[in-house]
Amino acid sequence: MKKTIISLAAIAASCAAYAQDGQFPLDSLKNPSVDYISVSASVGFESAYVFRAEKLANYSIQPEVEVGYTVAGFDLYGGAWANTPLYGTDDGLQEIDFNAGASYTYKSLRLDVGYLYYWYPSNNEAGDLSRDMEVYVGISLDTSAYLDGINLNPSVYYFYNWILEQQVVEASIGYDTPVGSWLMGWEKLTMPANVYFGYATAGRKNGDTGGDDVGCTYWYWGASIDVAYAITEYCTLSAGARYSQAFGNNADDPYYQINPRQNFWYGAKVSFGF
Q1: DSSP 92
Q2: Under a CB-based contact definition with an 8 Å cutoff, are residues 137 and 7 in contact?
Q3: Given this model, what pLDDT does residue 90 score?
Q4: Residue 137: inside a domain
Q5: Alpha carbons 77 and 106: distance in angstroms, whole number
Q6: 177: CATH
Q7: In a domain, 40, yes or no
Q8: How far is 56 from 234, CA to CA, in rounded Å?
């Protein structure tokens, strides 16, 4: 299958790149240490839950946790993320996502492959789509060496969902603007900004629910800007605004047509990590 070929090719390319550096270091396996572990967690509030330009819920709480461990030069990671509508499932989709993957950095390039499992507890009794799954592969670039220390972190990702027969390509670019240093000498105050563009096409938007197989094809883009303040080395507060817009008309999916084609919302988050 196409998704398997892409993932294996990505892993092979990563291994070939690493071979140019020499031997695979196995210290993290021979001598396990917390020095090889990374842990991050966050709790966010969003006035809307928007995924790939589709609004799926109103006011929501979004907790997240991720753990990583370095093995033979690869950063292995796994985590969970959830969306819980603030006023119950009548106000939107309840969702829990689990992910696992591996990334490798060679010079300025970072290769990332992984798996996502989406679970929708609020849909179980309604008979709607209760779960779906994706694999993904992506590549990103650290532009610091080329732009005088500025990292715009451009990236391109490909996602394949075999339950929905869906393919998604998404490109993004972002910058953590050091506005605090520029204006007042406060290095702890920054302004992260991000812009993304995507294309999604699905052959079975209703998945395995037994409904009619309808397609869905559209383009979308979005942007976000936050103000972030690092309270400590391990804790950051942030808040800001987001916007998204979808393009394209698909007569096979009338339900999608009644969803808002433009979304503007805001959010805030407290993040922890080491």
Answers
A1: B
A2: yes
A3: 79
A4: yes
A5: 18
A6: 2.40.160
A7: no
A8: 31
